[in-house]
Amino acid sequence: MSLRSAMAHRNLLYLLSLKELRTRYKKSVLGWLWSLLNPVSQMLIFTVIFTYVFKQTPEPGNPSGLRNFPLYFLAGLLPWNFFAITTSVAMGNVQSGAGLIRKVAFPHEHLVFSVLIAQFVTLLIETAILVVALMIAGQNAFVWLPVLLVVYLLWALFTAGFALALAAANVFFHDVQYLWSIVSQVLFYATPVIYFPQIIQLTALRRFSTYGPTGAFVGVFHQLMYDGRAPTWAQWAYLFGLAVVAFAVGAALFSRLSPRFAEEL
């Protein structure tokens, strides 16, 4: 995708993104409330499991001193849901856009980016509510919002790379969507969303949950929102590297395969 082509079709990207936002909960009674109810229901389920089944005590935030598992969980779950939903929906979006791909010449990447933009808007709304909840609990997360937004943008770039690669591969091999549903579940439990990395006894698993691609990002989200401290320069460099490499690989694969989409779909 050339920058000139992307700019020429920016109105199409806007319309596709708007369509994603408008049709997300079309004909549902609660509408956009579902975007809040889904993570809240997950929070309640895992809080019961963490607190009453496994009888775990939340680790205190450093230096915030906050001890609140539901808020720790949401600080990691909301960006994780952005990643999981964007990658899975993007694959279906390219498939369902077959008619448009056959009839109109446009950057096929827009079918992926429209999902990314719509989901990013949802993430920002959910994060605003989380910040209010954190402030009620005594953690002044508001001051970290500018830093969090920068990390969110890196997370979006990282997610875009995965979404582009998966969407392109899925056009030629439909097994990709089924395989990814399994892989994403494994990644969810290998990422410290529902647990504190310190409780993992096996060193290899603890290192992967901390330094793995998704774990590194979620760890920084917890660090900002739950702990109340900024990432180190080493963390910034690592996250930037992950985001750029993921996007470069995904964009290159999508660009290479997209000219054959019309004949495959």
| Number of separate helices | 12
Shape: globular
Order of helices and strands: HHHHHHHHHHHH
Please give the share of residues in helix: over 70%
Average pLDDT, rounded to a whole number, is 86
Number of domains: 1
Structural class, by secondary structure, is mainly alpha
Report the sheet-strand fraction: under 5%
Biggest β-sheet strands, sense, barrel: none
> Regions with pLDDT < 50 over 5+ consecutive residues?
none
For this entry, give a set of tags.
globular
Describe this structure in words.
There is one protein chain. The protein is an all-alpha fold and 265 residues long. The protein has one domain (3-264). It is built from 12 helices and no strands. The protein has helices at 3-8, 10-23, 34-53, 69-96, 98-103, 110-136, 145-172, 175-190, 203-211, 213-227, 233-257, 261-264. Helix 4 (69-96) runs antiparallel to helix 6 (110-136), helix 4 (69-96) packs across helix 10 and helix 9 (203-211) crosses helix 10. The longest helix is centred in the N-terminal third of the chain and has 28 residues, at 69-96. The radius of gyration is 19 Å and the shape is globular. It starts with a helix and ends with a helix.
